[in-house]
Amino acid sequence: MNVIELFMTWLTALFQWFLTTSIMASLLVIMILLIKWVFKKQLSLRIHYFLWIILLLRLILPFAPESSFSIFNIFALNVNPMPMSSDVESRSVSLHNAPGILTQDLPGESSKPVAGKDEVIHNPHATEPFPDFAAGHTWRASIWNYVAVLWILGITVLLIYMIRMNVLFKKKVVKNSKIVESSLSSILERCKITMGVKATIPLLITNAVSGPTLYGLFRPKLLLPKRTIETLRDDELEHIFLHELAHYRRKDIEFNALFICMLVIHWFNPVIWYAYCRMRQDQELACDGLALSHINQSNIASYGHTILRLVEMNSTMNRFTSIAHFSSNKTQLKKRILMIKYFDKKKYRWSLPGVLLIALLGGCVLTNANSSAEQTDIESEPPKSSIEIQEQTDKDDIHFVIDTKDEIPGSLTKETATIGNVHLGDTKQNVYGILGEPAKVSSDSNTGEDIWHYPKQAATVYFYKESPDFPVRGVSRILIEGKSNLKTDKELGVGDSLDHIKNAFTNINGTPDKNGVRTIWINGENRGSESANRYYPTMIFELSSNIVQKIELTNQGVNPGPYDQKPLSYNDLKIGDIQIGDTSDSLMERYGDPSKKTTVHGIGDPEWIFEKYGITVFLDPVWAIRVTNPFSGSTPRGIRIGSTEDEVKKAYPDSFPDSDFNRLVQNSTDGVYQLVFVLKNRAVSAIFLQKDLQLSKF
What we know:
Helix content is 36%, strand content 17%. The chain is of the alpha+beta class. The strands form 5 sheets. The protein has a 9-stranded mixed β-sheet, with no helix packed on it. The chain has an 8-stranded antiparallel β-sheet with strand order 19-20-21-22-26-25-24-23, with helices on one face. The chain has a 5-stranded mixed β-sheet with strand order 1-2-4-3-5. A hairpin with a 2-residue loop joins strand 7 (418-419) and strand 8 (422-423). Helix 1 (3-38) runs antiparallel to helix 2, helix 9 (252-265) packs antiparallel against helix 10 (270-292) and helix 10 (270-292) packs parallel to helix 12. The longest helix is centred in the first third of the chain and has 36 residues, at 3-38. The radius of gyration is 33 Å and the shape is flat. 37% of the residues are buried. The model is unreliable at 76-138, 373-380 and 383-393 (pLDDT under 50).
């Protein structure tokens, strides 16, 4: 999988994640509107507005705890990306490079910034792909890919528009503004004392706005058009200042900016746009309420008259600028005037029923659906096939097995036999690139195998345990059941019929039907014979009433070994006498103090440079080594600075060129370790050895 294909895969997964979040937010908007309609008069102005803060939290939070109380259990929605396996038809290789080493150039060449360790561990998108030259692969674009591209183009256009509007508005404010006289400033200072605001808020006269506006995300300014100052009395200006200071007190500018960012991301969802408009209306009412709570009862009517006068002068402001302004359209005006007419300070206060409602709603919508409950449902509900199964004899199609010695070889091969595009022997790196990060990682207490669990795909992947000679081996077993959407290379899945299996395979082994339950399996072509690569794959189907309930791909418990390859072993994890895992003390005993000590940007790990020996290490302990001239040591297979490209390929037959074809890359079978030879004029000029921090956590 090349860079573009990998980018498209992750972009599509990201879009599907946001699409799921957008659907969940739309359901929340409907709930909020229903609550506001049912409890219209019972809820205070603060509660009406605070409901939209819950919506913003739902849009912003990347992940949320699972709960059986989540409202999304009803709709079976969660924020995990939809499976992407349908778009990848063979192994997709995604090397999660450790920071710094592979992107660090030779002396005299430009260097690239180093990503942070935390980012590498927790961000599966922060990867650098390397194409798999050893095995062919195909990738086809799906409708999701095109929609994802359209989505990111929409975001780009809106971002450009938003930035342009803010830049133009700022220029207009700077160009056409001047500080007001002291008399108005004294009114503002008096209002600040009333509202309890201590921050410095400059008061500017400008023609950039048509109505009073609080502008600026970090250093807010109060903008007043000249016409407003000339038209309104001092008491009316006081009402304006109280309203704008209410925006400041409530952090409305920051809230609006965050909401606008969510609008940009969810630009395709009209429900979110409508929610934003309703939120701005409730925001104005809440600010009116806060301002009125600081006004004498006798002056409330005058506040309403101020609003009426301003509506005539105020035109629509651009909603993509960092502002909060004293405005109201004619549709909203009646609602605001009625609120002011019947205003009671109690309507602005927090109330116990309102707080309980907010807590209940937050618990229901700021949590995700319980995946364990979903999985229980998946396992308890047997899949149903839409195909009518006809009774037939198995004598001519299935070889009945009484003793395992009677099994017959089948047609499975290591190149084609897959489940969800995962092969037996695949590295953790491959599986991560195809299925993503597992929801849970465990270990088999009997075999010592690592187990990756994917509840959303109803899949389980097993990996061979460590051995003295090799790091963790590749995939030993793949299992799908329940409502899994994963398929085999023959497009067989849970819920398919026995006829589908017969049409896809010949030389089928099986047990007789007993009470509607049976097992069918197909062996690899090497079954019953001694093979150089010791590969004995078996595809097992468990059926109930001739409908597939479970599919398992296994190598019959036999570790296939390195095939005809020579992947990195633990003995290969060193260059010269420097080994992965060495401590800083052991390095100083051999080489003395480093000539330079730095800190890796974004990681915080020490970087030690021994210029005299041509050595750079990242520690502590050592997890990456880089050597250049005049380093005189060699790898355990005899490759040193100055070795030829042919010598490297002979010593490391699995090595493959990277996308620039100026380096040869050798991976360990588990994908955790990587050895890279930089070539210049077809000779080794630098050697990198590194541990992948992303995969090492598994």
